[in-house]
Amino acid sequence: MNQSWTQRQRPERLERRIEFTDYQDTRNFLDKLNTLSQNRERFPDISFGRTYVNLTLHVKDNMSSLDSLDHDFAQQIDDLL
Amino acid sequence: MNQSWTQRQRPERLERRIEFTDYQDTRNFLDKLNTLSQNRERFPDISFGRTYVNLTLHVKDNMSSLDSLDHDFAQQIDDLL
Protein backbone atom coordinates (compact mmCIF):
# COMPACT_ATOMS: atom_id res chain seq x y z
CA MET A 1 0.00 0.00 0.00
CA ASN A 2 1.41 3.34 -1.14
CA GLN A 3 2.47 5.75 1.65
CA SER A 4 0.01 8.35 0.41
CA TRP A 5 -2.80 6.52 2.22
CA THR A 6 -3.46 7.83 5.72
CA GLN A 7 -4.93 5.55 8.39
CA ARG A 8 -7.31 7.43 10.68
CA GLN A 9 -9.25 6.47 13.82
CA ARG A 10 -12.80 6.95 15.14
CA PRO A 11 -13.96 5.45 12.86
CA GLU A 12 -10.95 3.46 11.68
CA ARG A 13 -10.46 4.09 7.95
CA LEU A 14 -7.93 4.66 5.14
CA GLU A 15 -7.95 7.98 3.31
CA ARG A 16 -6.15 9.18 0.23
CA ARG A 17 -6.37 12.34 -1.97
CA ILE A 18 -5.27 12.17 -5.61
CA GLU A 19 -4.82 15.23 -7.82
CA PHE A 20 -5.18 15.12 -11.62
CA THR A 21 -4.16 17.55 -14.36
CA ASP A 22 -7.60 17.72 -15.99
CA TYR A 23 -11.16 16.41 -15.84
CA GLN A 24 -10.52 13.68 -18.42
CA ASP A 25 -7.75 12.18 -16.26
CA THR A 26 -10.05 12.32 -13.25
CA ARG A 27 -12.79 10.54 -15.23
CA ASN A 28 -10.42 7.88 -16.59
CA PHE A 29 -9.32 7.03 -13.04
CA LEU A 30 -12.92 6.99 -11.75
CA ASP A 31 -13.99 4.67 -14.56
CA LYS A 32 -11.17 2.23 -13.76
CA LEU A 33 -12.04 2.45 -10.05
CA ASN A 34 -15.69 1.77 -10.89
CA THR A 35 -14.69 -1.49 -12.61
CA LEU A 36 -12.45 -2.48 -9.69
CA SER A 37 -15.20 -1.68 -7.17
CA GLN A 38 -17.73 -3.82 -9.02
CA ASN A 39 -15.28 -6.71 -9.38
CA ARG A 40 -14.31 -6.57 -5.71
CA GLU A 41 -17.84 -5.62 -4.47
CA ARG A 42 -16.03 -2.96 -2.42
CA PHE A 43 -17.35 0.61 -2.73
CA PRO A 44 -15.13 3.29 -1.17
CA ASP A 45 -16.66 6.67 -0.33
CA ILE A 46 -15.48 8.89 -3.14
CA SER A 47 -15.60 12.65 -3.40
CA PHE A 48 -14.29 14.36 -6.51
CA GLY A 49 -14.28 17.59 -8.41
CA ARG A 50 -12.74 18.55 -11.73
CA THR A 51 -9.13 17.66 -10.85
CA TYR A 52 -9.14 15.75 -7.52
CA VAL A 53 -10.46 12.55 -5.97
CA ASN A 54 -10.71 11.88 -2.22
CA LEU A 55 -11.06 8.24 -1.26
CA THR A 56 -12.17 6.80 2.06
CA LEU A 57 -11.99 3.06 2.77
CA HIS A 58 -14.11 2.19 5.78
CA VAL A 59 -13.88 -1.04 7.78
CA LYS A 60 -15.95 -3.73 6.04
CA ASP A 61 -19.52 -4.17 7.34
CA ASN A 62 -18.90 -7.43 9.23
CA MET A 63 -15.50 -6.38 10.65
CA SER A 64 -14.35 -4.24 13.57
CA SER A 65 -11.01 -3.07 12.17
CA LEU A 66 -9.02 -2.78 8.96
CA ASP A 67 -7.26 -5.92 7.74
CA SER A 68 -4.89 -7.06 4.98
CA LEU A 69 -7.78 -7.23 2.48
CA ASP A 70 -8.34 -3.50 2.97
CA HIS A 71 -4.67 -2.74 2.47
CA ASP A 72 -4.66 -4.98 -0.62
CA PHE A 73 -7.65 -3.08 -2.01
CA ALA A 74 -5.83 0.22 -1.34
CA GLN A 75 -2.82 -1.18 -3.23
CA GLN A 76 -5.06 -2.22 -6.14
CA ILE A 77 -6.41 1.34 -6.27
CA ASP A 78 -2.84 2.68 -6.32
CA ASP A 79 -2.08 0.32 -9.21
CA LEU A 80 -4.80 2.05 -11.29
CA LEU A 81 -2.64 5.18 -11.41
CA MET B 1 -34.97 24.13 -8.98
CA ASN B 2 -36.33 21.26 -6.86
CA GLN B 3 -36.86 22.02 -3.14
CA SER B 4 -34.44 19.29 -2.20
CA TRP B 5 -31.54 21.64 -2.86
CA THR B 6 -30.37 23.55 0.21
CA GLN B 7 -28.73 26.95 -0.13
CA ARG B 8 -25.98 27.45 2.44
CA GLN B 9 -23.72 30.36 3.35
CA ARG B 10 -20.01 30.89 4.10
CA PRO B 11 -19.25 29.97 1.38
CA GLU B 12 -22.48 30.46 -0.52
CA ARG B 13 -23.39 27.17 -2.25
CA LEU B 14 -26.20 24.78 -3.19
CA GLU B 15 -26.24 21.29 -1.73
CA ARG B 16 -28.32 18.21 -2.43
CA ARG B 17 -28.19 14.55 -1.32
CA ILE B 18 -29.76 11.87 -3.54
CA GLU B 19 -30.28 8.27 -2.44
CA PHE B 20 -30.42 5.34 -4.88
CA THR B 21 -31.64 1.77 -4.53
CA ASP B 22 -28.42 0.16 -5.81
CA TYR B 23 -24.96 0.88 -7.21
CA GLN B 24 -26.10 0.58 -10.82
CA ASP B 25 -28.67 3.38 -10.34
CA THR B 26 -25.99 5.49 -8.68
CA ARG B 27 -23.64 4.87 -11.62
CA ASN B 28 -26.33 5.63 -14.22
CA PHE B 29 -27.02 8.98 -12.59
CA LEU B 30 -23.30 9.80 -12.28
CA ASP B 31 -22.72 8.95 -15.94
CA LYS B 32 -25.56 11.28 -17.02
CA LEU B 33 -24.23 13.98 -14.70
CA ASN B 34 -20.75 13.52 -16.20
CA THR B 35 -22.16 14.26 -19.67
CA LEU B 36 -24.08 17.29 -18.39
CA SER B 37 -20.98 18.60 -16.56
CA GLN B 38 -18.84 18.33 -19.69
CA ASN B 39 -21.50 19.98 -21.86
CA ARG B 40 -21.97 22.82 -19.40
CA GLU B 41 -18.28 23.00 -18.35
CA ARG B 42 -19.62 23.06 -14.78
CA PHE B 43 -18.14 20.54 -12.35
CA PRO B 44 -19.97 20.23 -9.02
CA ASP B 45 -18.14 18.71 -6.06
CA ILE B 46 -19.54 15.21 -5.89
CA SER B 47 -19.22 12.65 -3.12
CA PHE B 48 -20.82 9.25 -3.50
CA GLY B 49 -20.88 5.75 -2.12
CA ARG B 50 -22.75 2.66 -3.22
CA THR B 51 -26.26 4.13 -2.93
CA TYR B 52 -25.95 7.91 -2.38
CA VAL B 53 -24.64 11.04 -4.10
CA ASN B 54 -23.95 14.36 -2.36
CA LEU B 55 -23.70 17.34 -4.68
CA THR B 56 -22.27 20.78 -3.93
CA LEU B 57 -22.60 23.65 -6.40
CA HIS B 58 -20.18 26.42 -5.52
CA VAL B 59 -20.36 29.98 -6.79
CA LYS B 60 -18.67 30.16 -10.22
CA ASP B 61 -15.01 31.25 -10.24
CA ASN B 62 -15.59 34.77 -11.55
CA MET B 63 -18.72 35.44 -9.46
CA SER B 64 -19.34 36.48 -5.87
CA SER B 65 -22.76 34.86 -5.36
CA LEU B 66 -25.12 32.29 -6.83
CA ASP B 67 -27.20 33.39 -9.81
CA SER B 68 -29.97 32.08 -12.07
CA LEU B 69 -27.44 30.06 -14.09
CA ASP B 70 -26.58 28.09 -10.95
CA HIS B 71 -30.24 27.47 -10.20
CA ASP B 72 -30.78 26.42 -13.83
CA PHE B 73 -27.88 23.99 -13.57
CA ALA B 74 -29.40 22.58 -10.36
CA GLN B 75 -32.69 22.13 -12.23
CA GLN B 76 -30.91 20.37 -15.09
CA ILE B 77 -29.38 17.98 -12.56
CA ASP B 78 -32.85 17.34 -11.09
CA ASP B 79 -34.09 16.58 -14.59
CA LEU B 80 -31.57 13.72 -14.85
CA LEU B 81 -33.53 11.81 -12.19
TrEMBL record, chains A, B:
- InterPro entries hit by this protein: PCD_sf (IPR036428), Pterin_deHydtase (IPR001533)
What is the enzyme's main class?
A: lyase
Q: What is this protein called?
A: 4a-hydroxytetrahydrobiopterin dehydratase
Key words of the record: Lyase, Plastid
State the Gene Ontology BP annotations: tetrahydrobiopterin biosynthetic process
GO terms, molecular function? 4-alpha-hydroxytetrahydrobiopterin dehydratase activity
Q: Which family does it belong to?
A: Belongs to the pterin-4-alpha-carbinolamine dehydratase family.
EC numbers listed for it are 4.2.1.96
Provide the reaction this enzyme catalyses. Answer: (4aS,6R)-4a-hydroxy-L-erythro-5,6,7,8-tetrahydrobiopterin = (6R)-L-erythro-6,7-dihydrobiopterin + H2O
Residue ranges annotated as coiled coil are: none
